[in-house]
UniProtKB/TrEMBL annotation:
Protein name: Circadian input-output histidine kinase CikA
UniProt keyword annotations, A-Z: ATP-binding, Cell cycle, Kinase, Membrane, Nucleotide-binding, Phosphoprotein, Transferase, Two-component regulatory system
Domain of life: Bacteria
4-aspartylphosphate, modified sites: D661
Amino acid sequence: MQVVSARDITERNQSQKALQIKENHRRKQSQTLVQLARSKTFQQGDLNAALKEITKAAARTLSVKRVGVWLYNQERSKIECIDLYNVSTKEHSFGNSLSEKNYPAYFQALEEERTIAVDDAINDKRTQELAESYLSVWGITSVLDAPIWLEGCLIGVVCHEHIGEKRQWTLEEETFAGSIADFVTLAIEAKERNFAQEALRQSEAQFRAIFERSSIGIALIDMKAQIVDTNLALCEILGYSREELDGKRFTDYICTQRGDLKLYKQLTSGIHTDLERTSRVGFQPSKHQEQFVERHRIEMERRCLHQNGSLVWTHISVSVIPASNGEPEFFLAMIEDITERKETELKLRVSQEAAEAASRAKSEFLATMSHELRTPLNAIMGLSQLLQQEIVGSLNEKQNEYVSCIYSSGEHLLALINDILDLSKIEADKEELLLSPLPVSDLCNYAIWTVRDRALEKGLQLTCKIDVEDNICIGDERRIKQMLLNLLTNAIKFTSVGQVSLVVKNVSQGITFTVSDTGIGIDSNQFTFLFEPFKQLDSRLNRQYEGTGLGLALTRKLARLHGGDVTVISTLGEGSQFTLFLPNPVEMQTEQNKGQQDTATTSSPATPQNQIILLVEEEENAAIVLQDYLQTIGYQVKWIDNINNFLEQVQNLQPNLILLDVQLIGNASGWDLLNVLKQEPYFPDLQVVMMGFSELPQEKLSIVQAGANDYLIKPIRVVQLESILTRYLNSSDFQINETPI
């Protein structure tokens, strides 16, 4: 009898079958992950290709219809699909997006959960917001979403979307989804790494191109001063090949100076100082780098030794290149050949010295010509004045006409000489202004009265209008009169019919003197030449209008010396308008105004009674003029030109007045004689008036300080001399006719 036992193993077989299926899924997942890990797509850094491979493999392995990779936008306000694989169509797409404000619960779940495994996506609170607009549209019933993390930051999600019956996700599937998300992270990192490497390669290529093609020599030098690398430009500067320079000491090719080694040490020590400071206060890259550029560079000009033995002038800029740890690793030297520039500088220096010598020669020439030209003018104008006074006899009408012509011609020549000297003084910055408060009406009346006769001779209407609130301006009286006369004289000269007007107005920052005419006018193309010295718009030898071209140039320079300017408006054939602008005056005391205004007339000298004048003058003609005039009006005059017996003459004559020429012939000048007189006990009782051609204000001041009573400017006019005689000899009866100045 046989006994047969039977057992139901259906459940065991089913369990074994389930385990086999589970093992097959695990094996399939592992194979997929190994294939992705071995894929060369990640090494190439092509993100699109890598994502396509990842989504396709994930869909095949998990048997889902759709797998998508979604990344946050820059503002993190939404996620955007950058690759979606559809198994049914076997196609990849992109471009859809989900906004956080529309699906806040889903976005919160992404931030908080490791994976979002949802069996019933339509009803799950984490995904039900997506039901109407997304899940139902594609028939999605279950989702398995794995967040994508990069450097600790959530950057997106990999969505595995199941279509059909609801699906329950296993723990292995959730782990696999997380691994797929990690592969997305690896793909993104590979792309960024390849991008950085490519940028580095391009940067190195660009640097090498700049290094090689630079026209400035470049050398990379280690901390032992040995040359590590050079470019072609440096090889050409030094005359060596790159191989010949490699490993050589950089300082062997430079003519060093005392203190250079100290500079290099300071350059490297500055790095350590900054490192210590940075470690204490924290590193701020941009600010630190900016300070590095300013602090860690030295620049110098040194001569370099060329291969042929010659010396080449160079400009060298040396900077420190730190290593990754911040320690100095290399010197970067930029060497520019400046030999040509140095030669040019040498030529310019020689030219400058020559120009300065020429300027000194010009000044000396002008000083000499000033004396040589004014000396005969002194005699011409002085003698013509004596003839006009008819001291030596009466003149007939024709003779009076000739004498007046001689005198006016002398004044014209004197004005020309004065303009040239004035212009030279201003250009040499030696002109000083004697500023004082001046009545505007007096200045204008003087200018109008002076040019009135010239205007009448040409039949021109001459007008003056003063429209100012305050009748005072601040300036140098002689210079302002000179500027107004220049402008009015020019206007009359270039106007044949019509009128010339002077209008004075207050403006916001000063006062303007505007001279208008109806003359020939000026072409606008010629404006640039108007104020150039010695430049005339009509430069032909047979030109219609006289002049040297100095008037306007001098006027503008004098105006700018006052802080103002001269401007012009003109139309060819219609007339011109020149405007002199003077800035607002500085407040001055009324007492100064009264004290510095010159009186228009002076009392006439009176009959001298046994008064003696000692005349010390080296130029004979000038002495004759003064002696004859003074003797004619009753003074006893002793003229000496020999300074050897000067003190003896003073002691013997006991003169009431000494007229002493500043410039004398011999070993002593008028200054020397004045100093000699100061040593004598009787000096305080002497009255000394100096005579000279110079009009410098500082010279007048020095004369007063030296002990003289006054100063006469040559050529000496009768009115000037009368003023001196009246002031210091105090006579009251004798009168002569005044001669116009």
